[in-house]
From TrEMBL:
This is prephenate dehydratase. Pathway: Amino-acid biosynthesis; L-phenylalanine biosynthesis; phenylpyruvate from prephenate: step 1/1. Pfam families: PDT. Its EC number is 4.2.1.51. Residues 3-179 form the Prephenate dehydratase domain. The keyword Amino-acid biosynthesis applies. Coiled coil: none annotated. It catalyses: prephenate + H(+) = 3-phenylpyruvate + CO2 + H2O. InterPro entries: Preph_deHydtase (IPR001086). It comes from the Bacteria.
Length: 179
């Protein structure tokens, strides 16, 4: 049995939290929170690491409610600083970007940064790291992605801007849970 389930792919903020706080555990990536909760209940994983709340945007989905409703145990909480960056496949400026892929929470956490660029359309993704794959699949030279610096660098994207989150000391609290 795998020790830990978390939102993937590699270099999501969930994965960055795992690397920082739980590097010794075997792990498996899941596509969404529901599949993580199901795997935990079905005994496929011993524990799960899920985002609970963000210092800027509030609760992450209904994860806290789901934990309570399903009788899961919250074992420990970890707070991870969240530094959001804007990256693209091609050399771009923010003014040349027409479309941005990212997780809805990252989009919400960068509202002020993008307030001057009303021409940009936002595309919601299942994770900040997964948004990179969506960007690559789109092959849109005028598109970008909001993600971590680690994820952008690992996928060979160019960084247009760093620290674009509205709250300078933005953090996400992750919960370690078990059935």
């Amino acid at each position: 049995m795998t020790d830990l389930g978390l939102l993937g792919p590699e270099n999501t903020f969930h994965d960055l939290a795992r690397k920082r706080f739980l590097p010794h555990l075997s792990f498996a990536y899941f596509q969404n929170f529901e599949t993580i909760f199901k795997a935990l209940k079905d005994g496929q994983i011993k524990q799960a690491l899920v985002a609970l709340r963000n210092s800027h945007s509030g609760q992450v989905g209904n994860n806290l409610e789901t934990i309570r409703q399903r009788g899961l145990q919250l074992i420990e909480e970890f707070e991870l600083p969240v530094n959001l960056c804007l990256g693209s496949l091609k050399p771009n400026t923010i003014k040349s970007i027409r479309k941005v892929f990212s997780h809805p929470m990252a989009i919400k956490e960068t509202t002020h940064f993008f307030s001057k660029y009303s021409h940009i359309k936002f595309i919601a993704s299942s994770s900040t790291a997964g948004a990179i794959d969506e960007l690559k699949n789109s092959r849109d030279s005028q598109a970008a992605v909001i993600s971590s610096k680690e994820a952008l660098e690992s996928k060979g994207l160019l960084i247009i801007a760093e620290g674009i989150q509205d709250e300078k000391h933005n953090t996400t609290t992750f919960g370690l849970i078990r059935a």
